[in-house]
Amino acid sequence: MRILVADPVSAEGVKLLEQHFEVDVRHKLPPEELIRVIPAYDALVVRSETKVTKAVIDAAANLKVIGRAGVGVDNIDVEAATKRGIIVLNAPEGNTVAATEHTMAMMLALARNIPQAHATMKAGEWQRSKFMGVELRGKTLGILGLGRIGAGVAKRAMAMEMTVLAYDPFINADNAKALGVELVELDEVLAAADFLTLHLPLTADTRGLLGQDAFKRMKRGVRIINCARGGIIDEGALAQALQDGIVAGAAIDVFEKEPIDPNNPLLGLNNVVLTPHLGASTAEAQVGVAVDVARGIIAALRGEPVTTAVNLAPIPPHVLEVIQPYFKVAEKMGCLAVHLADGRISVVDVEYNGDISEVDTRLVTTAVLKGMLNPILQEKVNYVNAPGIAKARGIKVKEIKSKETANFANLITVRVRTDKTAHMVAGTLFGKTEGRIVMIDGYRVDVEPEGWLLIGPHIDKPGMVGKVGTILGEHNINIAGMQVGRTEQAGTNIMVMAVESDIPTPVMLRIKAVDGILGAKLVNFNAG
Ligand SMILES: NC(=O)c1ccc[n+]([C@@H]2O[C@H](COP(=O)([O-])OP(=O)(O)OC[C@H]3O[C@@H](n4cnc5c(N)ncnc54)[C@H](O)[C@@H]3O)[C@@H](O)[C@H]2O)c1
Ligand SMILES: O=C(O)[C@H](O)COP(=O)(O)O
Known about the structure:
By secondary structure, this protein is an alpha/beta fold. It has helices at 11-18, 31-37, 54-59, 78-83, 96-112, 114-122, 148-159, 173-179, 186-192, 212-216, 235-244, 283-301, 317-323, 327-340, 362-373, 386-392, 464-474, 505-512, and strands at 2-5, 22-25, 43-46, 65-68, 87-90, 140-144, 163-167, 182-183, 195-198, 222-226, 247-252, 272-274, 345-354, 396-402, 410-418, 422-430, 434-440, 443-447, 452-459, 479-486, 492-499, 521-524. This is D-3-phosphoglycerate dehydrogenase.
């Protein structure tokens, strides 16, 4: 598999990728060149510079994953990627401290005119009276967006003895309270803040959030810091507010257009502090995001779920701890179920029994669908596109949950209904990680879902296994393991044989023709 690293990321991340894949590092590709080369790649790594547009995604015939070595994914057309089943993942935590500290540096630089004073000294001047500053202590800091960076800034601001107010309609009031932050409405923050700092994503809702109107509602003399995203503040309106004295100063790291437009009105003003999108630029942060994104890409290309995928619902760590060991066996159960099912699958019920029923199991259900759809579809089915593909094919998927369990601490049962038949497969973990199939169509078994399995329900009479074994032997097909599963009702059994190679169709037909064999299915668990 081939990876294109299109923006500068730390060598540690690139080395990690190189241990597994062929990696090309090519920075500053013009858009048309990116579109030309992208079909050759399975994964793309970017920061904020490369724009991954719909045109790039449409051209990316083999792309499976886009990794953003950082937080903001506003340079990636996530919707277009999702439609194509391309996983978009980011590295949300690696640069949090760097951006938080940059915000504090910008706030202090703004309060004490440090860049302006520095520039005069470099010019040979000694001007003490020109640069009267203000203190942070006792001032009100308004935070828009109390996520990772917003919360980090809040903690540090409180150490500087500031009062902190925040606007974030999506966070829990108790979390804010635990931080010592008062959550209030936007207008209240705007009216009260002496310093106002932005830590929001750029979305349709936040674009232009601070425009002409908002500046009118601010306390006169407010100082504004934006280390989040250009576009959240209307730069023209900010320049005007700075000139009118509504805003006393602004410290800006991110711009509507990057690299900054030489005509940007902020460049001509003295009461601004500008940095060229340096929030994440620390050695520590760059190693952190590069390694995190490399790990995400490796997982994605192995077909494992990616906890940092932005086009999948996020999974809290305590839930992940419970469900992660089940992904593999769930996928294999899906694979087995689709092989058992003759005909068009219309309903998939996934039942969870035991402790697992108490957490969010949607991703385990997605693993079942992935395992079910991959063997029958040309396109690659993954954790992003599996639910959408199932829906588009008219498959009704339902989860059933019960804490009750009979023989196993946790049990997952997949029931599929087709236009002709109904089948079931149940699976669990032995120990903490060993996936096992423990029931097939009501027959109790204990099967490791690996390699090739021949499954044959048959009449319960002597010689059945011997007859099938003889046919396999005649065709030089080695049997690696065998067991017979029983049901409560006497009369039929199921044989499950692990074989070491594919069984050609004519041989399968001979097996199916054996007197007493009620059907024979061959499952290749390694194909998906
Ligand atoms: N300057 C840099 O180099 C740099 C570095 C890292 C992150 N960033 C940017 O900083 C921003 C924050 O990053 P983070 O890691 O803290 O993200 P985060 O997801 O942890 O926090 C964002 C917060 O914004 C809130 N929010 C979303 N929409 C909102 C709205 N309409 N109104 C109010 N609140 C809203 C969310 O509830 C969330 O709590 C992002 O834009 C990110 O891209 C910039
Ligand atoms: O969203 C982010 O992570 C920051 O804006 C950093 O962007 P960068 O990786 O281009 O420095």
